Amino acid sequence: MEGTIGEIRLFAANFAPRDWSYCNGALLAISSNVALFSILGTTYGGDGKVTFGLPNLAGRSAVGAGQGPGLSYYDLGEKTGANSTTLTIMNLPPHTHTAGGNIVIPAFSEEGDSATPANNVLASKGSMYTSQGSDSSTKATPLNIQVGVTGGSTPINITQPSLGMNYIICMYGIFPSRS
């Protein structure tokens, strides 16, 4: 199967054809693959003296290098993304949880005779229901209901629907000319 050195193709078989190799991140000897090294360099790994790396597309999708309108910038060989993420309060959109209901508190209608609620029933106190504005003890106090935190910090899968195939790279073939 003829190709251009450095060309990557999707291949549906379970083997890499002659002169092609899987895009699996393997390190190769520069001395055995000078033409391919001159195209890839150390963009995908290796020390650049003895070895260089093939792109690793195992479990990844290829994305064009550079930046399109409204898209993120990607360097050649940059790895990014994850198969799962954990949602936190910081990355959820602002929203409100409301709670409502009726609260009924049984109380004794006469004045209480104990200063502690332990083992007692709620009772009134003198002038409890007065409407005098200067009496701060008679002001209504708002009832704050807090909705508790929920969730278990379990990551959610964000993998797009996929089909497993092999990416292969041309190792030996036509050397590409620069234009």
TrEMBL record:
<feature type="domain" description="Phage tail collar">
    <location>
        <begin position="6"/>
        <end position="61"/>
    </location>
</feature>
<dbReference type="InterPro" id="IPR011083">
    <property type="entry name" value="Phage_tail_collar_dom"/>
</dbReference>
<protein>
    <submittedName>
        <fullName>Phage tail protein</fullName>
    </submittedName>
</protein>
<dbReference type="InterPro" id="IPR037053">
    <property type="entry name" value="Phage_tail_collar_dom_sf"/>
</dbReference>
<dbReference type="Pfam" id="PF07484">
    <property type="entry name" value="Collar"/>
</dbReference>
